[in-house]
Amino acid sequence: MPTPTKGPRLGGGPAHERLMLANLATSLFEHDRITTTEAKAKRLRPLAERLVTFAKRGDLAARRRVLTVVRDKGVVHRLFTEIAVDMQQRPGGYTRVTKIGNRKGDNAPMAVIELVREPFSPKQATVKEAEAATKRAATKSAAPAAEAPVEAPAAAAPVAFVDGGFGADSAAPLEDGSAPEGFTVKGNKDSMKYHTTESPWYDATIAEVWFRTPEAAEAAGFEPAGGEKAQGVDEA
Amino acid sequence: MAVPKRKTSRSNTRSRRANWKAEPVALSTCPQCKAPTQPHQACPSCGTYKGRHYAAAERTEHQG
Fold this sequence. Notes:
heterodimer, A: alpha+beta, 6-stranded mixed sheet, 3-stranded antiparallel sheet, 16% strand, elongated, B: alpha+beta, two-stranded antiparallel sheet, 1 helix
């Protein structure tokens, strides 16, 4: 016996249900955020997340699979070129359902379902756990080779930092990924965004280039990640 | 078709209905505007939930 679908059935029949879900998914990818009933939002969520997973894969086969549900090519284009890019770092959980109380008229519980397009920041507890695991692995592998790297820091010391390629106030990260002295602002070359120490995503960001000040990052064409407010930078 | 033999007495009707009770709605306080809100829902007075704003959640006097 096939496993029954989770959640309530919608519409007058299977075809009607498919159409309703397809229309909801199309609207969601078009507008990023839609208001609907709680039951429909809960049914839409697994479908929409599956479509985003296809969009992240990004090849022609995936695009054709998505087109069998979302018929609008413009919306599919937006899903593959804009939404999938924002979701690249996110390991699932692409949508968020928020309850907003009951509708006047039929008292139906309503909800807002939206795409989570904010920059991905892993939970701090998870980050700590991962870092501890890396450290454990590092100490294990470093124990036999403890004598070898004694010379390495001495060799690296004279070269304080390597130019990061974005002006005088930028620097490439040191070999172990840490910051050269005096550089505190992390920059991401792919998204062209920077993170100050006040950023909520500071610890999660891997610096591809370091800056002395947020102003230097701005001058190099970088934008504050999540807006200026999130980075504690005054409006320029 | 099976049918009741006796009329249900007023007493039986009322004692059955005496157990229909309304439960009080669970309320919490909105951290944003301090108005009473239902937990796990966006605040109906200011529309915020976990620091995010939802305009669709806001209720005026007429919307009940």
